[in-house]
Design brief:
- The protein is α+β, with helices and mostly antiparallel strands.
- It has two domains: about 1-185, no CATH class; about 195-305, Diaminopimelate Epimerase, Chain A, domain 1 (Roll).
- The protein contains 15 helices and nine strands.
- Helix 12 (about 215-225) links the parallel strand 5 and strand 6 (about 235-240).
Length: about 300
Amino acid sequence: MALNLDAANWDMSGVYLAGCIGDKQHLGGFSGLNAQIIKIGKDRGAIEEKEDLNLVGRTVGEALVSTLEPVIFKFLTEEGALNEFLDRAGMDPDMELKGLQVEDRTKLASLLAIELLKQKVRSEVIDRVTGPHLIVKERDSKEISYMIDSCGRMDQMGLGFLIALSNESAISQGADIYRRYVKDLHEIMMRLKKDGTKHADAFDYFFTHDDEGSLAGTLAELTRDYILDGSKPVLSFTHRGSETRVSARATQGLFNNGLDLAKVMYEASEHVGGTGGGHPVASGATIPADKEKEFLQKVDSIIKFQLE
């Protein structure tokens, strides 16, 4: 619609792409109308696509500890581990990330893949070390998407809106918000890794602190990919007064085998007098706090039924 109103609206395609990425529509490759728009944008020179590291940060050292993923736990917990890794890569932590040569990027990607193999993560998680980046007016749509998302999660919605309008000051502030957001997530992940998660027959789950509810969905994804093996859906629970908020995440492989978390959350929450729904691999619910046990049992039975 925007393009039919005025062809000059191609300059808005960076915001459009950031929204697609934020909604995970890029995973597995863009398809349908998204793919058509991207093709036309590339043909017109409005959108540039390149394969690159999925790291965000000014320097290499900053990017390896301040990017949402990949999560290399020893960089966060072992003193000197990051510098030792970069020594092996032949890189200085203060090197500009965007200034890396192609061979340096390739070497860094390979070494990161080895570290992730040591952590025993799934192959599709390792594949996300690199990926296609869509550039509009010299702005990486993936990076803009991460910034806007972190602003929303950190209760800075106005700043996220200004980033969408390409406000330079807002983008600078957004980079700081993103680093704080990632730091908070990594600290909670290390706590979960230390304390462990809980396990039902058909899913894994954990409880966040009451003030961590805005991070719950992302935490469920990261826990699925970097702490657990992804063989089961992961649910996170956060108490909010008389209610409990639930975020649920699963892999595409589980969806291919018959799992639909949207139906799971809808049916299980309705069973206990709550509400729920969403996407097949990313969904959520709000339930009465005193119905958690009954909800857990219902979720377990529905998932078993779907996957049997």
